[in-house]
Task: inverse folding
């Protein structure tokens, strides 16, 4: 039982050391991820269209 109490106490102390992000940091990170995912998606769509057109030209 002592080990469980010590574990709980240690976990609580470690949790107090954690610095949680503020709303602006979360918003900024979300926006960054959204922009990067959008750019990569558009790039892959462009590559897919180019490859599709070139493969269609080769087959026909």
Result:
């Amino acid at each position: 039982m002592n080990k469980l109490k010590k574990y709980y106490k240690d976990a609580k102390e470690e949790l107090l050391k954690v610095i949680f992000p503020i709303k602006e940091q979360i918003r900024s990170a979300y926006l960054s991820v959204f922009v990067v995912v959008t750019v990569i998606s558009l790039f892959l769509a462009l590559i897919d269209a180019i490859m599709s057109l070139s493969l269609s030209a080769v087959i026909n």
Notes: The chain has a mean pLDDT of 95. The chain has one domain: 1-59. The CA atoms of residues 22 and 46 lie 36 Å apart. The chain has two helices and no strands.
